Amino acid sequence: MATNLPASANAQGGIGTAPVPHTEHDEHLHEHDEHHDQHWMWKYVFSQDHKMIARQFLITGMFWAIVGGTLSSLFRLQLGWPEATLDWLQPLLGKWIDGGKLSKEFYLALVTMHGTIMVFFVLTAGLSGTFSNFLIPLQVGARDMASGFMNMLSYWFFFLSSIIMFVSLFLETGPAAAGWTIYPPLSALPQAIPGSGMGMTLWLVSMVFFIVSQLLGGVNYVTTVINLRTRGLSMSKLPLTIWAFFLTAILGILSFPVLLSAALLLVFDRSFGTSFFLSDIYIAGQALHNQGGSPVLFQHLFWFLGHPEVYIVIMPAMGMVSEILATNARKPIFGYRAMIGSLIGISLLSFVVWAHHMFVTGMNPFLGSVFMFLTLIIAVPSGVKVFNWLATLWRGNIRFTAAMLFAIGFVSLFISGGLTGIILGNATLDIQMHNTYFVVAHFHLVMGSSAFFGLFAGVYHWFPKMFGRMMDEKLGYIHFWLTFIGVYLVFMPMHYVGIAGFPRRYYSWTGFDAFSQFADLNKFISAAAILAFFAQFIFIFNFFYSIFRGRRATQNPWNSTTLEWTTPIVPGHGNWPGEIPAVYRWPYDYSKPGSETDFIPQNVPYSQTASSNLPYEREIED
Amino acid sequence: MTALTILLVLVLLLVVFGLLFRLQILTSIFSGTYVREIGMSNRINAVLMLVFMVVGGAAFFWSFSENFNKMNPPVASIHGHAMERMFWTTMTVIGIAFVLTQALLFVYSYKYQHKEGRRAYFFAHNNTIEVVWTIIPAIVMASLIFAGWKAWTRITGPAPKDSVVVELMGKQFNWLVRYPGRDMKLGVINYRLIDASNDFGFDLSDKAALDDFTSTEIHVPKGHPVLIKIRSRDVLHAVYMPHFRVQMYAVPGMPTRFWFTPTMTTDEMRAHLGNPKFDYELACNQICGASHFAMKAKLIVDEPDDYQAWYAKQSPNSANADMMASYKQTSQNAGLGKGGSLGAKAAAIEETGETPAAPLSAQTAM
Fold first, then answer.
1. ipTM of the complex
2. For this protein, what does the record note about how its cofactor is bound (chain B) (predicted)?
3. Which residues in chain B touch residue A361, judged by CB atoms under 8 angstroms apart?
4. Which of A284, A345, B174, B268 gives a 20 to 30 Å CA spacing to B94?
């Protein structure tokens, strides 16, 4: 059996590489060979090659993840050890350490930037940017994205946005500090908090460029999936990864412009004296002229993006996890069509649930009822996905690669975090739980940690295709177990704190009798969080070490069925040296009865697999 | 110097780890386990899955029950009891789903680990089973939605006519409190009239404002519906009273409200908890600036008689000479002379809605 052989033996198996004679694409061959002696500037920096752009997104995303993780370690120090002196951080934080304590303004800035960085720069750009770019052309059988140039712009707009956001960390008045949701009036008035001065301006400018980047990328992903699929690859034969990236891109295209409009209106309020979100404000001894604006309007606009955004974060992870579970359980994904259906259902519903973030904002309670109804429906397609993943494992033949471990971890975290959404989506229960640590625990499990696990699974799984080498499996195992245990140790106890009613974004709880009883638990959470953060350096070491010194990859190290594994070990510009393979079958023919190997790649025609064809497949043998 | 030493030690440690790692790879290359795809580690990971489930599950169960009593702030309002029941019912439902799905995930991972010579079962789809696991969650969700919706409409419905009215105004970083005076009407306020002696911005040309009074503490009577009217005068805040299961944003320019009926006086709760220092606390629960975490107020639930006694002792705005004097000046500066907030007044009447009947007989008797 193919799976039992050393990976290098697979090249002799030959099924995946069986040449299928076609000539229509021959004219492309020479055109693409010419790019080999490109100037490094065009090859590594301003590259239009989707694989290079993907790597750029990945490495930038990793940089941001370290920054975001560092910020969280800093504020967890404050929460876990409120009495400790932090003078030793003075060399790093300078004036933000005030009398041995973290400054209160800077605490809020840390929380704000941690959220912004993780949600947008790591889990949107770093995750979608990396894998949509990398996998869409490879898995649909395209030479590159529909527009390589726009794709390059997408990265460089992201880069520009990153620079601006990074610079804002070093401002005299500090970075934005109004929470990652930047609700006005707090975010509109520098009198209210210093971070709403230059820090907020840079935040908004950075986000404008970020949104441009997302739209350029999104349009490209959608166009590529619709137009550039190889011969025979109908939508009903697409790997679930591509379905997930495709729907994610559509969500982004439809929702990010709304955030742009919210940001622009906020810029107007801040700089040009308009009153979209401001009304009846007396602050710093002065009555402002603004009247008639509504802070709640901003929340509607923000969450109209903000809610689809959490699905933009999680759906690519869902797609990759589906792919990795099937490959490593050596079984077809269970309920392929149900998986697509549930993705579509989640995508549609994600647009009509935004106001569940606003049950107690003074919004009309009738609207609350409607949004409670719509929100709780979304549990159904999410449940279907979980059951299908479980059914995929059932009677499989599981190989625990590092990617597989993270994929299983993803399912576990998604269940743990998803279920508490049933509490929070219930408007009645949200009265008590809103803005407490219960919410923090919920979304860190269901979209934060899960999406990170999806990202890790994806990196471990597609690393051989990205860099032509394998990551070290043992380090991968250690990384997985430390992270998996760490994440649970951080976020499970956080629910207790939340049920007791601890508000989020509190610099300290000691001022309240009701909230000061969990000092030990907070210490525990902080210690676990910081340890889990340090465990990530195992991954970073493994990643960079393996780029240069990892074991050389074979062409199809996981014995997978999808098209990216039919390219050379390190695909060049244009992806396939010869013509693009055609596709004949769905991507999940694993362990098919009657087949010699336990996987049949998508580009193998039914005519070559007579022994394993199902009755209806015999009719379409070609 | 110490920093440099620590740095040096860290670097050396990293180098040692790096060398050990390299050594381990070289040994595995020589022993031939380096490229073997599925070996002992597959088995170890499978076992770890099971160990994680058992140990992790036990640890979770232990810590949950250990912390259970701390988790539940005592309930002190009528709707709070209903919410509490709904919360733990829902927790039970999702707890069952949690245990079932996680158990299947880890048990399957262990049980179906790779075995030499075995082939996975080619089982691609089954529509019946898909329908079953779509419909069952849908039914469960529907019943949760229905229960939640019933409670939500009741809790957010109009306050009883005879509610005691308190208005809270959030500002960086404390809560202002006012009560309608003996006319039971909250007077007009206007944010342009705010000054050092008139924190609320009372428009004293409105008669209804003259007998309003402000307070540093919030007093409410036990067993009587309390309507909290909520405003903010600068940024967003939120009134959050965990013991009463009450939460509502304070929004500048848009008054909000929440009503509830307290069921235990502060003294009763102190006796109940055996904590003579206990007080009901009101926390700000929407990020509002640097001292957000310290923005709190005390709420005291009195026996109705005590409440009336307290109420009778408060002195109205008209007795506040400072405010009356500075009002003239401020209203002129703001261009809001006598009756200048009339537009605001019409709006305020609409906001404050009902003209309440006497909430507590003694209040009107004052």
1. 0.91
2. Binds a copper A center.
3. 249, 251, 256
4. A345
